[in-house]
Amino acid sequence: MVLQELKEQVYKLSVSDRLALVSLIIESLQATPSLQPDKSNAVGRMRGFLKTDQPAPTDEEVEAMLEEQVVERYLH
User: Fold this and answer.
1) Per-residue pLDDT tens for 10-41?
2) What is the DSSP letter of 32?
3) Coil, helix or strand for 22?
């Protein structure tokens, strides 16, 4: 049964049967082991994304970039 057919069938159930179905779905989700990502690994990868050989922009350069974005957004 495809999802669309299942959705159509759900509305034909009584309220108590729908509640029982919701309980069963929740139960099945709780029984499924959750995949928790390794946070320390994710942090390391993010640091890698941020690495660059270029120096950080100055305050004036950041201000110019922000102003350029505003001009792009509202004047184009």
Assistant:
1) 999 999 999 999 999 888 888 777 666 667 77
2) S
3) helix
